[in-house]
Amino acid sequence: MPPSSVFSVVIEPQGLRFDALSGVSLVASAREAGIVLPTSCRNGTCRACLCRVLSGRAHHLIEWPGLSAEEKREGCILPCVAAPESALRIEVPKAFLAPVQSPLAT
Q: What percent of the chain has pLDDT over 70?
């Protein structure tokens, strides 16, 4: 897969959409698009970002993400350390659009 591949990601149940770069974490790509995914540690250990892949493929950027074998079988990923391999639909009930700050705000 070329390092510059871009994949469409849909977040359910909200229907939020963003483009994600291969090799870049889903959390980072979402933030770039103004979408906040729950996260805390950003290194795959706290599990605050745990979500489920509904369709598509992603891979973890670290060797030992904090997921059990059962969670992996169920399609769970940690988007703080996962990147897309294809277009994705992920279930992240607590995702939201970041508030837009006015450039005139002081």
A: 93
What pTM value is reported for the model? 0.89
- SS3 of the chain: the string is CCCCCEEEEEEECCCEEEEEECCCCHHHHHHHCCEECCCCCCCCCCCCCCEEEEECCEEECCCCCCCCHHHHHCCEECCCCEEECCCEEEECCCCEECCCCCCCCC
Confidence of residue 38 (pLDDT cuts 50, 70, 90): very high
Q: Right CATH number for 6-97 from 2.40.50.100, 3.10.20.30, 3.40.50.2300, 2.40.50.200? A: 3.10.20.30
